[in-house]
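HUMAN: Forgive my ignorance: could you write out one protein's sequence and backbone structure tokens?

ASSISTANT:
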Amino acid sequence: MTTSAEAHLFDRGGCCTVAKKVYYRQPVEKLVPRVSYERVRSYRTVWVKKLYRDRCGCRKFYRSVAVQQPTVSVVKKVTYERVRAYRTVSAIKHYRKRCCCR
């Protein structure tokens, strides 16, 4: 009959078990950037010369006037998605072999 200390010795690190280093893949969630491009309509300010006349109509002159001109630009849009990835983890596993004590 074995005592509890001897049983623990045989279970973990005694002569009846062998410790081996094993590698396994553990799933983890990872944030990955997903880049897409969108066409966006925007406006830019353009200065143009505009022809004016005075009240009597005899004199002509130009003035610079700000005009909003529509433009289409391509904008980068970044969204983050959760993706399953795997990392390699090492652990020590105890295997039982044929008992050599008896």
Notes: The longest strand covers residues 17-53. The chain has a mean pLDDT of 85.
